[in-house]
Amino acid sequence: MTTHATSLDAAIEAGDNSLYNEDLAPVTQDGRTWSMLNYLTLWVGMSSQIPTYLVASGLIILGMNWWQAIFTVALGNVLILVPILLNSHVGAKYGIPFPVFARASYGTYGANLPAILRGLVATGWFGIQTWIGGVAVNLGIAAVFPGWTTFGGRIGGQPLGMWLSFLLFWALHMFIIYKGMDALRRLQTWAAPIVLAFGVGLAIWIIVRAHGIGSMLSDPGRLNSFGTFMPVFIPSLVGVMALWATLSLNVPDFTRFARNQRAQLIGQAIALPTGMTVFAVLGVILASGSKVVFGEAIWDPVQLAGHIGVPAAELVALLGAAVATLTVNMSANVVSPSYDFANVWPSRISRRTGGLIVGILGILCQPWRLVSDPSGFIFGWLGGYGAGMGVIAGVMIVDYWIVRRGQLRVRDLFSHQGVYRYQGGWNMHALFATVVGLFFAWGGYAIPPMHALTDYGWFVGFFVGGLVYWATMAASRQRSSATGERPEEQLAAPSPSEVAP
């Protein structure tokens, strides 16, 4: 039995199959199998990614004390939870993925702009996470076979074993892509406890080596006044939010499989802030403890696991790190961009083909170079990218909740002749709002007086993009009403059969 709606057959037969394939079609009730537990394990798995540890540890290195770092991570994730839940609603209600949802605000062709931008950045993240997982596999093998580090010499600045580990880890991702979403759901269910055990086990080990937690948390930090704390706190908060700036857009890719709104709403509301805060605590412990034990803070838990000194224990810990990376990488950086690329040419690019494109581009982006400066990548480039995603989130949330009041015409999302055609398939109001939002969010990189706005990049992009979109759409309706046109057709409510296919 198909898991996708058949009510779109008429649109396809009419010649609009360029906007449709089985992976982009609305999911029917038969395919909505994700429970609250699945969303809990989804976010526990994604929260356990290595960058979560890096951010928390990095805040310690930047001068925060333990409670300042944990507070920053917790607050950032509570704030980003708001747009995540707002965009989650459409997936659970209509069963559509992010690129199809974007057609309502950007147009049937214009939706490719946010989809491709989101897909390309996720591809870079895929490459970096795959490289990190490859490092864990490489160190795990070396813990058992020390000669592995010198086997075959060096190629391109890296040992041959590192390249083989990277390709092995990459191939595992491609296998899961071939098996499909159900394989990912099963992976998350059993992987989450392993991920948690990895972090807790590593934290217990470093606490024992440091002879207790007291000496680790006694450091008062360097940011003891409002004037010294705020300049670090604001960009750090934006950086924390930027970790999930992509998921705040494409979360419908996952909630379209929810049994009901309650399952995705409660599951995500509990798991995201709780999971991220727990792993932030572990990151703070690892950074502070490694400073006590080794004289310097080791903020990468993969590298820290390689210092355990007991081959069997190192192997188990590093395999745990690999599982953590695999889980979050598949969830955040493979599934969603594969839909994004499929949206560009639905009749030719399936989800599996889109996933293969992600895999190839993930290698071509040379992640071993990107990860050579993780601090600059996370707080510099990622912060800027997060601002860009904030603009798109502002446009889409205002369109769905304020302009359309949560109502979409599903069939028209798959038709070039429907109400979302706008001007040649582009909604110029969304395009204009995006350009203006990006100018204010990114302007500080080129115009020094605007630098203060760049520190608040995600917030500036979100509110400027959303307000400009709302204002231009409202003005357009007023002009059209004065001339007798009927723009209200684009805001019409769907038929009851389109709400829950």
TrEMBL record:
<feature type="transmembrane region" description="Helical">
    <location>
        <begin position="66"/>
        <end position="86"/>
    </location>
</feature>
<feature type="transmembrane region" description="Helical">
    <location>
        <begin position="353"/>
        <end position="371"/>
    </location>
</feature>
<feature type="transmembrane region" description="Helical">
    <location>
        <begin position="424"/>
        <end position="444"/>
    </location>
</feature>
<dbReference type="InterPro" id="IPR012681">
    <property type="entry name" value="NCS1"/>
</dbReference>
<keyword id="KW-0472">Membrane</keyword>
<feature type="transmembrane region" description="Helical">
    <location>
        <begin position="125"/>
        <end position="148"/>
    </location>
</feature>
<feature type="transmembrane region" description="Helical">
    <location>
        <begin position="228"/>
        <end position="249"/>
    </location>
</feature>
<feature type="transmembrane region" description="Helical">
    <location>
        <begin position="160"/>
        <end position="178"/>
    </location>
</feature>
<protein>
    <submittedName>
        <fullName>NCS1 family nucleobase:cation symporter-1</fullName>
    </submittedName>
</protein>
<feature type="transmembrane region" description="Helical">
    <location>
        <begin position="270"/>
        <end position="288"/>
    </location>
</feature>
<feature type="transmembrane region" description="Helical">
    <location>
        <begin position="190"/>
        <end position="208"/>
    </location>
</feature>
<dbReference type="Pfam" id="PF02133">
    <property type="entry name" value="Transp_cyt_pur"/>
</dbReference>
<feature type="region of interest" description="Disordered">
    <location>
        <begin position="480"/>
        <end position="501"/>
    </location>
</feature>
<feature type="transmembrane region" description="Helical">
    <location>
        <begin position="377"/>
        <end position="403"/>
    </location>
</feature>
<feature type="transmembrane region" description="Helical">
    <location>
        <begin position="308"/>
        <end position="332"/>
    </location>
</feature>
<comment type="similarity">
    <text>Belongs to the purine-cytosine permease (2.A.39) family.</text>
</comment>
<dbReference type="InterPro" id="IPR001248">
    <property type="entry name" value="Pur-cyt_permease"/>
</dbReference>
<keyword id="KW-0812">Transmembrane</keyword>
<feature type="transmembrane region" description="Helical">
    <location>
        <begin position="39"/>
        <end position="60"/>
    </location>
</feature>
<dbReference type="InterPro" id="IPR045225">
    <property type="entry name" value="Uracil/uridine/allantoin_perm"/>
</dbReference>
<keyword id="KW-1133">Transmembrane helix</keyword>
<feature type="transmembrane region" description="Helical">
    <location>
        <begin position="456"/>
        <end position="476"/>
    </location>
</feature>
